[in-house]
Design a protein that fits this description.
The protein is mainly β. It contains two helices and 18 strands. It has a single domain, classed as Maltoporin, Chain A (Beta Barrel), CATH 2.40.170.
Length: 403
């Protein structure tokens, strides 16, 4: 029988409660001049079946770890949330607040609450100076796919961001920013594992062409870990050339190509070409195509090391009628891992190949009611067979808006 060790009780943080009060206050404020308030409460019910909840290699492994040869289960997810905006003069405040409840049929020890709070203030002092203040706070279950724990672990992810932009001239824009990111992500043997990052951003963008913008950006991250033996601090710097080209009213091209260097105690220094290129094409009035290719350097929390991910995605959206939309997409990710830092981890030299395919069918039954059916098929083939798995998840969602 599967049991959960060290269950984390659910408490709404004081910030989330304060955010609810603030958002409610903003939405009931009377109109002043050009001020406008828009509020969209919503609720949804999902019923999903996952054939491999724990992302285990096979039924034998499932039996040894969880006492059952069948790692599949059906769960119900209930969500209540509210999104809204309050706009006055040149300023706009936006918020999304959400609470989720998960109930499992068989693995009831996975039952849990999650929450999301996202607050954003888009401000403008004048035509020359504007910026963004944003705070994101989310409580979510850690993925079993990382194999960093065999039990349910709850991650808490908090990120605060500030951006200030300056119009140097009609053609040039200077972008600056800073953020503070704290991720509490308990591991199997290290319940106090925390990653803390601080980052800065500096960019210069040219706006002089009608359909073309381009620029150069430099991002720097400094981070460290808590309750992570043998894992030292790290720094990462990326220089990126950005491009946005509106080829026609039907085609967009976005590109970011650059160079990333990461230095970390206990891990060989890494220097890699990175970037993200996205192509969007409106094939017909009802059909759109998106192609995306990305390569990035990311931390791998399960070991305190890092990974280099190369991902390709193809998405095709068909709006059959004004009520019915079909969305199909396929992707492939190649992951190379570096560093076996935390004692007992074996990620050094590991390579993963992870294809995924997804189909969504969305039907607008009413203006306030959306029905979505979906199926996701994925598997992972790794040079370390412990990390192999295959999984299919399918389900249906009913989403109601009060708008």
């Amino acid at each position: 029988m599967f049991r959960v060790a060290g269950r984390v009780p659910f408490r709404l943080p004081s910030l989330l409660l304060a955010s609810l009060l603030l958002a409610s206050l903003l939405m009931i404020l009377p109109r002043v001049g050009a001020a406008q308030a828009l509020l969209d409460p919503y609720a949804s019910v999902d019923v999903d079946h996952d054939t491999n909840v724990f992302r285990v290699q096979n039924s034998t492994v499932s039996d040894s770890l969880y006492g059952t040869r069948n790692p599949g289960d059906t769960d119900e997810k209930y969500t209540v949330g509210m999104s809204g905006t309050y706009q006055w003069s040149l300023q706009k405040f936006s918020e999304t607040l959400e609470v989720r409840r998960f109930d499992y049929d068989r693995f009831t020890d996975l039952d849990r609450y999650e929450y999301l709070a996202n607050l954003e203030l888009d401000w403008r002092l004048s035509r020359l100076i504007d910026g963004v203040l944003q705070y994101h706070d989310e409580r979510v279950a850690a993925s079993f796919a990382n194999n960093d724990s065999f039990n349910l672990e709850i991650d808490t992810d908090r990120n605060a961001t500030a951006k200030v932009n300056f119009e140097l001239s009609p053609d040039w824009r200077l972008e600056t920013g800073a953020n503070d990111h704290v991720l509490h992500a308990p591991l199997q043997n290290y319940s106090g594992f925390v990653e803390h990052e601080t980052g800065t951003h500096l960019g210069l963008t040219y706006l002089g062409f009608a359909n073309l913008t381009y620029g150069l950006a430099v991002d720097h991250i400094s981070g460290d870990y808590q309750d992570a033996p043998d894992v030292g601090p790290y720094s990462q710097t990326a220089a990126v050339l950005k491009l946005h080209y509106l080829i026609s009213g039907l085609t967009n091209l976005n590109g970011a190509v650059g160079y990333t260097r990461r230095d970390q105690t206990g891990v060989p220094n890494l220097s890699e070409m990175t970037g993200d290129i996205s192509y969007t094409r409106q094939l017909t009035g009802k059909t759109a195509l998106v192609l995306d290719l990305a390569r990035g350097v990311n931390g791998y929390l399960a070991s305190g090391g890092l990974e280099v991910d190369t991902t390709g995605t193809v998405a095709l959206t068909w709006k059959a009628t004004y009520k019915l939309t079909v969305d199909a997409r396929a992707g492939y990710t190649h992951s190379a891992f570096l560093g076996s830092v935390i004692p007992g981890t074996t990620t050094e030299g590991r390579l993963d190949h992870s294809p995924v395919a997804q189909l969504n069918i969305i039907y607008m039954a009413l203006r306030q009611l959306e029905i979505k059916a979906f199926v996701v098929s994925q598997y992972r083939a790794s040079t370390d067979q412990v990390y192999d798995y295959n999984d299919t998840t399918y389900g249906i969602q009913a989403l109601a808006h009060w708008r």
